[in-house]
Amino acid sequence: MLILGIESSCDETAVCVAHDGTEILSSVISTQIEEHKKYGGVVPEIASRRHCENILGVTKKALEDSGKSLDDIDAIAVTYAPGLIGALLVGVNFAKGLAMASGKPLVPVHHIAGHIAANYIVHPELKPPYLCLVASGGHSHIVEVLDYTKFKIVGRTRDDAAGECFDKCARAMGFPYPGGVHIDRAAQSGNKDTYKLPRPAVHGSEYDFSFSGLKTAVINLVHNSQQRNTEINKNDLSAAVQNAISEILSEKTINAAKALGYDTVAVAGGVSANSGVRAAFEKLCGESGMKLYLPRKDLCGDNGAMIACQGYYNYLAGYRADESLNAVATLSLEEI
Fold this sequence. Notes:
The chain is an alpha/beta fold. It contains ten helices and ten strands. It has two domains: 2-116 and 300-335, ATPase, nucleotide binding domain (Nucleotidyltransferase, domain 5, 2-Layer Sandwich), CATH 3.30.420.40; 128-298, 2-Layer Sandwich (Nucleotidyltransferase, domain 5). Helices cover 44% and strands 19% of the residues. The two termini are 23 Å apart.
């Protein structure tokens, strides 16, 4: 079965053609990073306009690279929630028009479910139930994956997401957007013990995250250093930030897995590409005797392959949409 997957929830216009969800025939991504870099972050209006300009060309390229035509496609899957509303609307409306014109079924996909599904592409042996951490610029969730289309949220961020914390700490240190990758590189030469950073906790909700306090501590440290006319060691502070975020994410996830009786853990989302996060999970899972699944780094960020993959499982489960499908900026994974 051939699925055309369309992703436009933030600043990547991405389209993929996949066979039975996990065999990727083509995957094309048009990124806007260089344009948004000058503003220090994604500008929603600009992102929406670029999606409008790019989506047709990206779709044509994906079909061309796959050696397939639209007539060969069995269903069209599209991200409809959550994300930047203007960006989502471009993808949803394009997919609706494509489905209506071609007579193909339209399959709605939740963005977070798509990130989780990225692991199936690399690890076809991974099967529910298991526990998955989804960490990105906008999301930090610990999710029970009960089935391919059934999820239960165990923990979530109460304020900033892990990726957002990386980016805001990086900006305070003077790194360009997106900052997470620069912190990762600098951390390789740093000493994580030079700076002592807090490990915020949410009382009464042991598996929830809070990264606002950590972000504020880093910003205050940088500002105080500037006021005293002293220089911070960017490598050391990067290592400290990366170590703190990695510890928080991995420890809470593994503790939740132990409490809920899971021996299989997966990690997904843009933050799963971070070397410190991957190493922390490998260490704790190894010590606990748990199986760990990580996506390839090219599948950690937003991409059409993950939407095509989850779209395949949604199609098998009977998920369909018509011309009334609308984009939704915020929607819990448990509500789909």
